[in-house]
Amino acid sequence: MKLPEKGLAWPEIEARLNDAKKDDFSWREGRMAVYYYYLDDELAEVQKRAYAAFWTENSLGKRAFPSLAKLENDVIDFGLALMNAPEDAAGTFTSGGSESIFLAVQTARDWARATKGIERPNFVVPRTAHPAFSRAGHALGIDVRRVPTTRNDFKADVGAIASRIDDNTIGLVGSAPCYPFGVFDPIRELGALAQSRGLWLHVDACVGGFLSPYVKRLGHAVPDWDFSVPGVMSLSADLHKHGMAAKGASLMMLRAKELKEKHQTFDFREWERGPYVAWTMQGTRPGGAIAAAWATLNYLGDEGYLRCARMIMDNKKALIDGIGRIPGLAVLEPSELSIFVTRSADPALDIGAVSDAMGTRGWLIGRQVEPPGIHMHLNPSHERMVGDYLGDLAWAVGQARQGGARPREAGSTY
Ligand SMILES: Cc1ncc(COP(=O)(O)O)c(C=O)c1O
Fold first, then answer.
1. Among 200, 220, 190, which Cα is nearest to 208's?
2. Whose CA is nearest to atom 5 of ligand 1?
3. Do 32 and 77 fall within a single domain?
């Protein structure tokens, strides 16, 4: 882009922005299986107005904006209570799941360094753990050991994890649920293992944190995964996923305030401008993301989150039942929350070719690589696509069987 010599008027800018979007996939119609969470235009409007009300406020400035400090604390308090945190727990509002995971891993590293003198640490995690753990390890000088899950249910293999622990291991990870298969790792067993070996257990509830408590209340079986499980030291839970908030919103929570004070806080004084204290990777932090998250919680209320959970579980059932009626397709089991994977149950049917055919009808397909499949992560808005999706999927299977819909789109886990 060349900078215009004179600034443009808003109508022209708006037209250009809309034009820039013209080749994007339609999330509004539910044609994407990832990247967005949407209920309806009413909630979207509340978020936009709340965001705009704090569009320039900076939540780095605690002295300047006590308003944001209060909104942030309200959101954190809600998250801690929902996740059964003890009285003395602490939370941090972050920009997203990856930052929450980074901060938890950093806090665990500094805790292990201070309390055990471990200088070359490692974490042992199931292979299904989010790449953010390896990314954090890369940045923080921590070896992240990925251990294959059990073959039958894709959950963390606790015995195999135990066998990879050594004197430099500082922590373990379990997901609630994991992204590739949507299943919960056995957090109780991981917690017991962590306690018996003096290790940190982080539970990644970026997907399940704000959804699974409501799914459980609807009567579905959800394993225990939160602070009520002994041994869980930290949690990540994304407001901008099933918390239904605007993007740039997640929580990182610690079992005790002392951990935050001693091992998470960055308290810096070696420059001319005086003390600089931060708990996140960001310096300047958008007040809008906090205000929009606070507004979302208050707009949806308990009833709204239950409604979202019901919509997701009903959509999932309708989709899984429909897929089961298409010859040649099957859904991987178990699928415990909002994610499921469709695979080929017929050696003559290439699931990649089915994905290619779906792409030609405007569906952004999540391509599972191991085993090959179609990855689906549902949010409430998928309600509007169930019929179209099943119709196009049956058509796509027919295309794939005839060898149609080439060339293949480049594969991507996301
Ligand atoms: C289980 C899990 N953890 C962490 C993340 C990372 O979250 P973010 O993309 O907000 O950084 C994701 C994202 O999909 C996830 O599914």
1. 220
2. 97
3. no
pTM of the model: 0.96
Q: Which atom of ligand 1 is nearest to the CA of 205?
A: 1
136/247 same-domain check: yes
Query: What is the CA(14)–ligand 1 centre distance, in A?
Result: 31
The domain boundary, picked from 297, 329, 346, lies at 297
Copy the structure tokens of residue 158.
Answer: 């606790």
Ligand 1 atom closest to the Cα of residue 208 is 1
Number of domain units in the chain: 2
> Residues 236, 251: contact at Cβ < 8 Å?
yes
In a domain, 360, yes or no: yes
Question: Same domain for 223 and 365?
Answer: no
Q: How far apart are CA 214 and CA 56, in angstroms?
A: 34
Per residue in 10-44, pLDDT (tens digit) is 999 999 999 999 999 888 888 988 899 999 999 99
**CB of residue 179 inside a 6 A radius of ligand 1:** yes
Q: Domain with 334 in it: what CATH number?
A: 3.90.1150.10
What is the rounded (10 degree) CA torsion for 91, 279, 127, 233? Answer: -40
Q: What is the pLDDT of residue 404?
A: 58
Give yes or no: residues 35 and 50 share one domain: no
Average pLDDT, integer, range 392-409: 81
Among protein residues, the one whose CA lies closest to atom 9 of ligand 1: 97
Domain residues for the domain of 101 are: 46-297
CB 130 near ligand 1, within 6 Å:
yes
CB 156 within 8 A of CB 191: no
